[in-house]
Amino acid sequence: MGLIEDEIDEVKRLCCNVIPCSKLVTCLNSLIRVDINHTDSRQLTVCIRFPVDYPQNKLLLEFKSRSMSLVFLERFTKICDEKSSQFIGKPQVMNVLKFIDSYLRENPLCIVTEEIFNIKKLLEGTSGDLKLRQKSSSLCLSARGGPFFYNAKFRISERYPVERIQWDECDCNLPQALVRFVNGQANEIARQCVEAPLRKIKNNELEFKPKPSLERTLRFIIAAMKGFPEERCPICEQLSLPPTAQEVIEIDTEAKFLIRMFCGHVYHQGCLKRFMSEPPFPPGGKICPAKRKHPRSDRTGGGGRLKHTTGTNSEEELCQQRVTHDKWGLNDVKSAEAKWAHQQARVRELEEVIDFLQ
């Protein structure tokens, strides 16, 4: 028998024993096909063909997978092609299959290769970073916006994307109100990727299928960190956040303490208090005076998009959402007017006293 026949016989005898999670589908002179199934998300079909002048030429490899991205398959083909160059002049099939099996085991993050590639592209031009931890199947994200940062470690389950990404805590120097919003909204985005909506799916809609949650979640966090330092208080139109992290106000009685409304805009507490306590008091409550709808409004699930118009102050650009907050939710017109009248009466009384004393 020739070398190719010997290798085919070797593959038949050893493949399933040496590679426990493998299944030999075809083993012929024209084609060797092996299915490797480590987990639901790491399923790979390996197709091997012998080239002319084998073994002086490298094996011809082709990978197929229903669970792994084309980006990974293309890159992995190049990696295996370079590895097979080391075996030229020797039997190659079992050596290549062993390498493929060990690579899939040692690199569990291969199942999110395309998402990692997109996230790193999103971080280009920023001081943020994404580091991979293959042994623990996790990623460390450092997202930044001006002097503010958000650092967290995200874990990828073996059952991903059926199971969402997980993270325990973050290191962030934003005000606590904004930290709670970022974590809460990021968790909600990840949850919606793997859990079907509560409403019943209509007959003409496709059945719910889990979606990858890594890129969607991290994309939101990165965008939020980029946007916060540029946000302005809709009342005074000054930057909501201070120029340095050391100047962040955490005392909830201070005028510069930040309050984020359900429409997404961030107010200075002093500005909001003045805005809510002064007329006019329209029926139904005050309307956010921001000139644009917020891209991360609670009403849009954090993923809304700004509408672009040619006008400068059109209704389509304005926020037009009611100012709603647990602390500043005074929507009773009569109560608001009465409170304002009482405050003005006290001001007049003080002015009269001052005039009398002078």
How large, in whole angstroms, is the Cα Rg? 30 Å
Average pLDDT over all residues = 85
Largest sheet: 4 strands, antiparallel
Structural class: alpha+beta
Q: Uncertain spans, ≥5 residues at pLDDT below 50?
A: 302-315
Strand residue content: 15-25%
Order of helices and strands: HEEEEHHHEEEEHHEEHH
Number of helices: 8
Q: What is the strand tally? A: 10
Shape: elongated
Proportion of helical residues: 25-40%
| Main sheet strand line-up | 1-2-3-4
Distance between the termini: 119 Å
In words, what does this structure look like?
The chain has 358 residues and is α+β, with helices and mostly antiparallel strands. It is 34% helix and 16% strand. It is built from eight helices and ten strands. It has a four-stranded antiparallel β-sheet with strand order 1-2-3-4, with helices on one face. Strands 5-6-7-8 form a four-stranded antiparallel β-sheet, covered by helices on one side. A hairpin with a 2-residue loop joins strand 6 and strand 7. The longest helix has 25 residues, at 333-357.
What descriptive keywords fit this protein?
alpha+beta, 4-stranded antiparallel sheet, elongated, 358 residues
Put the structure in a nutshell.
With 358 residues, the chain is an alpha+beta fold. The protein is 34% helix and 16% strand.
